[in-house]
Amino acid sequence: MSIERITKHFRDSAQTKLDSIDHLAVPIAAAVDVIVGALTSGNKILCCGNGGSAADAQHFAAELIGRFERERPSLPAIALTTDSSILTAVANDYQFDQVFARQVRGLGQPGDVLLAITTSGNSANVLEAIKAAHEREMIVIALTGKGGGKMNEALGDNDMHLCVPSERTARIQEVHLLSIHCLCDGIDALLCGDE
Ligand SMILES: O=C(CO)[C@@H](O)[C@H](O)[C@H](O)[C@H](O)COP(=O)(O)O
Ligand SMILES: [Zn+2]
C-alpha cells in the first residue's frame, strides 16, 4: 500500500474532524446536558447501531458502565447489540428490523435516552428503535452523517440530531467516535467537576 494513500486517510480524517466542530460542538454540549439530566433522574442510556456503529454503541456503554478518563461511580448504559440469543431470536421470529426496537420496548422507561448511531441515517432497525423509544417516552440522540437521510423525518421535537458533514462512512464513524469521547468527557465534567 502506498504511503500517499495512508497519508490521505489521515489528512481526510483530520479535515473532517475540523469541519465538524462548527456543526457538532453545540449539539454535543446539549446532548451532554440531556444525558446527565436523565442519569441524575435515575434513568438509563440504551445504545444501538450496525457494524462499526454497533462497536461504537458498545464502546459508549462500556465507558459509562466502566469509566472514561477518571474514577467515578458506574453509570447505567446498555448496548442493544451484544446478546446473540436476543438478536437471533427476534430476527428469526419477527424481522431483523425489530432487533433493537423489541429491546427498547422491553427495557425502555420514560426519560431514558436512546443513542441511535447510523452513518447513513437510513438503517431500518435503528429507525424502528426510534419509533419504539418514542412509544416509551424516551429521548433520542441520533449520530448520523450523509445529511441524515430518513433520520430527519424519524426524530421528534425533543430529540437531538448530531449529523457529521461528510458522505464517507469511515470518516463519519471516526467523528462519531470522537463525539462519543466528547460526550463521556462532558458527562464526567458535569457530574464530577472540571479538571
Ligand atoms: O464499519 C463499517 C464501515 O466502515 C461497516 O461495518 C458499517 O458499519 C456497516 O456497513 C453498517 O451496516 C452501515 O450502517 P449505517 O451506518 O448506514 O447505519
Ligand atoms: Zn468501519
TrEMBL record:
Boundaries of every SIS domain copy: 35-195
Keyword Coiled coil assigned: no
Annotated Pfam families: SIS_2 (PF13580)
Positions annotated to bind substrate: N50, G51, G52, E63, N92, D93, T118, T119, S120, S123, Q173
EC number: 5.3.1.28
Subcellular location: Cytoplasm
GO biological process: carbohydrate metabolic process; D-glycero-D-manno-heptose 7-phosphate biosynthetic process
Keyword Isomerase applies: yes
Catalytic activity: 2 D-sedoheptulose 7-phosphate = D-glycero-alpha-D-manno-heptose 7-phosphate + D-glycero-beta-D-manno-heptose 7-phosphate
Cofactor note: Binds 1 zinc ion per subunit.
Membrane-spanning parts: none
Chain positions recorded as Zn(2+) binding sites: H59, E63, Q173, H181
Cofactor(s) listed: Zn(2+)
GO cellular component: cytoplasm
Recorded family membership: Belongs to the SIS family. GmhA subfamily.
Assembly description: Homotetramer.
Function (record text): Catalyzes the isomerization of sedoheptulose 7-phosphate in D-glycero-D-manno-heptose 7-phosphate.
Anything else known: The reaction produces a racemic mixture of D-glycero-alpha-D-manno-heptose 7-phosphate and D-glycero-beta-D-manno-heptose 7-phosphate.
Entries under PANTHER family matching the protein: DNAA INITIATOR-ASSOCIATING PROTEIN DIAA, SEDOHEPTULOSE 7-PHOSPHATE ISOMERASE / DNAA INITIATOR-ASSOCIATING FACTOR FOR REPLICATION INITIATION
Protein name per UniProt: Phosphoheptose isomerase
Organism annotation: Chitinasiproducens palmae
Source lineage: Bacteria, Pseudomonadati, Pseudomonadota, Betaproteobacteria, Burkholderiales
